[in-house]
Amino acid sequence: MKGCSLLELKSHGDSRGSLVALEHPGTIPFEIKRVYYIYDTKRGVPRGFHAHTNLEQMLICVSGSCKVKVDNGMGDEEIYELNTPETALYIGEMLWREMFDFSQGCVLMVIASSVYNEEEYIRDYEKFKLMVKENR
Ligand code: T46
Q1: Is 50 known to be catalytic?
Q2: Cα(127)–Cα(125) distance, integer angstroms
Q3: What average pLDDT does the segment 119-131 reach?
């Protein structure tokens, strides 16, 4: 989907284990302003249900697995399964996302292009679709 893609991360593995490094410039296509992680999720309890007017993010499931539904507000949606710390999901602005099917022990790490700003969240799906339509 336009504005959303899976990226394979380079893992440095040896007999001791594995290491993935994330940096900008490099793997992360934007200047990193914030990192947060979601954990202790509950079985059957989804999260997200919003879009961002001004935020790019990379989602990496560093432990366990979860699914992310991404919707462009124009009738296209895609479900991505994140189940390895060697894959990142890039999500650009103006895309609706829902995270669900969290496995036990899932840790979803998110790297963001801006500091937290509740004002740039769109939490109403109908409003999101209208904004997409107006900006087309
Ligand atoms: C997103 C998905 C993948 C903060 O105080 N600072 C922060 O940086 C964030 C992200 C959240 N919060 C507070 C706001 C709420 O009181 O933490 C609480 C939970 O946030 P929210 O309900 O927005 O969490 P999710 O899991 O629905 O969504 C989060 C991000 O907010 C969002 O940007 O793309 O993860």
Answers
A1: yes
A2: 5
A3: 98
List beta partners, residue 61.
108
* pLDDT at residue number 136: 84
Q: What's the mean pLDDT when you consider all of the chain?
A: 97
Nearest CA to ligand 1 atom 32: 48
- 27 vs 12: CA distance, rounded Å: 14
**Dihedral sign from CA coordinates of 123, 46, 67, 27:** positive
Indicate the helix (H) or strand (E) that contains 78: strand 77-82
Instruction: State whether the beta carbon of 69 lies less than 6 angstroms from ligand 1.
Output: no
Does 53 contact ligand 1 (Cβ within 6 A)?
Answer: no
Q: From the CB of 39, is ligand 1 less than 6 Å away?
A: no
Sign (positive/negative) of CA torsion 110, 111, 117, 119? Answer: negative
DSSP state, residue 24: T
30 near 56, Cβ under 8 Å? Answer: yes
106: number of Cβ within 10 Å: 20
Q: What is the pLDDT of residues 36-58, one digit of tens each?
A: 999 999 999 999 999 999 999 99
